[in-house]
Amino acid sequence: MASLASVLIIGDGTAGTVVANKLKFLAGKRAEVRVVGNSQRHYYKGDFMFIPLKLKDYKECYKPPEFLFNAGIDYVKEEVVRVNVDQRLVTLRSGRTLSYDYLVIASGARLAPEEVPGFEGEARHFYTLQRAMELQEYMDSFQGGNLVIGQCAGPISYPSSTFEFALMARDYLESKGLLQKSKIHFLMPSLGIYSDSSTAGKIASLLGSKGIEVHKEFEVNTVNPKNKEVISVKGEKLNYSLLVAVPPHRGQRFVKDSSLGDDMGFIEVDRNTLNLKEHPEVFVAGDAAKLPIDKTGSAAHFQATYIANRIAMEVGGNYTPSTYMGENAFNAATSVGRGMTFYSSYSSSPKATFESMSDFLIKWTYSSTYFSSVVRGLI
């Protein structure tokens, strides 16, 4: 009787959970599936932008990680400190080592606000539940002035969230009678979804039509709390009354400690197979991967599905070469009550549908679908 294939997945977020659940269903008893992660809660992060504007209850955006894994998956609650891909060994904080036949690195990204001078304690954001709740208090007490919304340099998760927040914040201020006393500034970066001139133009036009001033190619480099001033990578300056900026994103520390990542800690992989170079048994998915597409939950889901299918076919002995196409599809809010859907792939720049109420409702209610079906590998 052939031995089980040992599949080790690092990360208990979207990509890691989807790979585990889909793979266990597809491979069944042919694979031993083990997940290593130390998250206290599994968040649906797409809801975070709604919380500061009092559009969602924070209790709807998380579940216990253990609750989301299907039967037969071994969940190890520990932190990874090092990966040796040559010896096929993963070392945990406790000193325990785990071996594998297949490794999936789906460790996500971490926030690094300390890398931007003046950022901590001055800039606000909604990229963790705690910070989203804090921003709710700042938005509640905001009485007018310059509301500046943007991001720091480099790739971030959910890059569309900044322009979505700007558009919904406009409606929020209007509902409070503060729109005439306020000026919203949107700092548009030059990468990801904004690197396509047509898409960037459509977003800028949409923002402009709502009275939001767009500052193109403006990525936050420094914050001057004394002067209430944000400074771009190019040296441009802008005064703010309230600054909402997404902090830099970096790969997990074990990635750099294991010499697997670039300077930012993201792992370069074959864009068509998601394999680590010279290691066909190692895959990378989600925010941990360095790929020429935006880091979104949708992209992580497409990648996880591809990897689960690949491994299942290989352990089943019926592998047929297949290619990951860089698919991405996500809903974006364009106001409180309307939205649009963006589609893209390696071969197609982002294309947006027309605005509709249904697109907004899909996004606003998606956490229920996410927890009941998406991360469980059912879709």
UniProtKB/TrEMBL annotation:
Organism: Thermogymnomonas acidicola
Single annotated GO MF: oxidoreductase activity
PANTHER family, A to Z: FAD-DEPENDENT PYRIDINE NUCLEOTIDE-DISULPHIDE OXIDOREDUCTASE, PTHR43755
Domain FAD/NAD(P)-binding, first and last residues per copy: 6-291
UniProt-recorded name of the protein: Pyridine nucleotide-disulfide oxidoreductase
Gene3D superfamilies found in the cross-reference section: FAD/NAD(P)-binding domain
